[in-house]
Design goal:
The protein folds into two domains: 231 residues, no CATH class; 199 residues, Alpha-Beta Plaits, CATH 3.30.70.1230. The longest helix has 44 residues. Helices cover 63% and strands 14% of the residues. The chain contains 16 helices and eight strands. The N terminus is likely disordered. The protein has 449 residues and is an alpha+beta fold. β7 and β8 form a beta hairpin. Strands 1, 2, 3, 4, 5, 6, 7 and 8 form an eight-stranded mixed beta sheet that branches.
């Protein structure tokens, strides 16, 4: 519970200081403008209703003139807002909203004062007990449409000041007072403490409920934005099914964000003689070929619960075991090898299609190493990238570089070979000195197809 309260306070602070994600701020800005348009229609129909009702139901010409005066002044304000929205003056619309809230309060308070002055000048309680006073709550309620808590606070302040103004004038003008609830309810007298308490509490209650609704709405938008952002980031590395699984587990997301050391298997795959190949192809064909090949490679990685870490030119780096493990280190290593085998199988079909159209076949080399690495988000603010770093990554890359020299298209380290079951066929080609490592490393060639 305390953690939720701290999160709520932190979220309020971020709202107050404008530290919400820029994308969320942009969404809220658009919603404020949409809310302004919705309120424009509301105020327009209210203006029509008020003008028509005031002229039809008025008892004399004085009523008609007064109603038309209030309606006309209000109509001018509504027309001004319409012009600002039509000209797309966003900042002006934002500021003008405060004036319109003030206009709403002035209209409703003005009606009560007018009828007091013309029909019951000796008893201000006529205004204080008029049903019109309920209309003073409408401006605070309508701020919910625009997602602006500052607008709500402004409306609340104007409403409370109006109520206090009525109360002060009633006291100074000697309006009838009583302590009898029957006279208060049915007569022309007012229990001042009860009236004041009621009409101070009412705006506060309305503002609290509306404010909480705005807070919940903004927080919901922020949470949805954060969730979608996480899914979008995860979708760069994982298949849709895995994205949903990771996103549904909060613990996985937190480890994804914070980073941790964990055992992984790293796969590198690179096109042989890509420079020579690309020199003899138009740029658009090179791009199309790379795009198609990458799709095949990504599918192989995703099919085996792996993560596409990055593309480096014509090479791909994939990780198995981070941030989501298959359940065991041996399982992650086996998945990496399966992905490599699937890449070669898909490449055979890909090359058959190229050969049928007279295009050059493509060969790739794959290298895999396994061990402990750091996995997490790296980079600066706004430029974070989930990746793994460590010796296991560098070694996997260097094993892949051995492929062409060894005339083998699929090499794995002895660490990887030691984790594989008998169903995987491989043979040791010898001890090889790997740059950056003190001792030679056993390298195995994976037998396939």
């Amino acid at each position: 519970m305390q953690q939720k309260i701290r999160k709520g306070i932190g979220f309020l602070h971020s709202m107050r200081t404008g530290q919400l994600d820029p994308t969320i701020q942009e969404v809220l800005g658009r919603e404020e403008e949409n809310g302004a348009r919705a309120l424009l229609y509301f105020r327009f129909f209210f203006f029509i209703f008020f003008a028509a009702g005031g002229s039809i139901s008025a008892s004399d010409i004085k009523d008609v003139i007064s109603n038309m005066f209030f309606a006309g002044a209000y109509g001018i304000a509504v027309f001004a807002q319409w012009l600002l929205i039509r000209k797309k003056l966003h900042r002006a619309v934002h500021r003008f909203n405060y004036f319109l809230v003030l206009a709403d309060h002035a209209l409703f308070a003005g009606l009560m004062i007018f009828y007091y002055v013309h029909y019951s000048p000796g008893n201000f309680n006529h205004a204080m007990k008029s049903p019109y006073i309920v209309l003073l709550l409408i401006p605070s309620l309508t701020t919910l449409i625009q997602f602006r808590q500052s607008l709500l606070l402004f409306s609340l302040a104007v409403c409370v000041l109006t109520i206090l103004g009525f109360f002060g004038y009633a006291k100074l003008s000697g309006a009838p007072q009583t302590s009898n609830w029957i006279q208060y309810s049915l007569g022309d007298a007012v229990i001042m403490p009860a009236w004041l308490t009621l009409w101070i509490l009412m705006p506060l209650i309305v503002a609290t409920l509306v404010g909480y609704a705005i807070f919940r709405s903004i927080r919901m938008v922020a949470e949805i934005g954060r969730s979608e952002g996480q899914k979008k980031q995860l979708a760069r590395y994982f298949s849709p099914a895995v994205v949903e699984e990771i996103s549904s587990a909060q613990g996985s997301i937190e480890s994804f964000e914070k980073g941790e050391r964990r055992p992984v298997a790293v796969l590198f795959a690179d096109i042989w003689s890509f420079t020579t190949l690309s020199e003899n192809m138009p740029p658009d064909r090179v791009a199309a070929m790379l795009s198609e090949l990458r799709q095949l490679q990504m599918k192989a990685v995703f099919n085996n619960n792996g993560m596409v870490d990055k593309f480096i030119g014509d090479a791909i780096m994939a990780v198995f075991g981070a941030p989501r493990s298959s359940g065991s280190f041996g399982g992650d290593v086996a998945n990496a090898v399966r992905a490599g085998l699937e890449m070669h199988a898909a490449l055979a079909v890909f090359n058959a299609a190229r050969k049928a159209t007279g295009e050059t076949e493509i060969r790739i080399g794959i290298g895999i190493h396994a061990g402990e690495a750091f996995a997490g988000n790296l980079g600066g603010e706004g430029q974070l990238e989930y990746t793994v770093i460590g010796d296991v990554v560098n070694t996997a890359s260097r094993i892949e570089h051995l492929c062409k020299k060894a005339q083998a298209d699929f090499l794995i380290s002895e660490t990887v070979a030691g984790e594989l079951e008998a169903s995987f066929k491989h043979e040791k080609i010898g001890l090889v000195k790997i740059r950056g490592r003190e001792k030679p490393m056993g390298i195995h060639r994976v037998i396939h197809g």
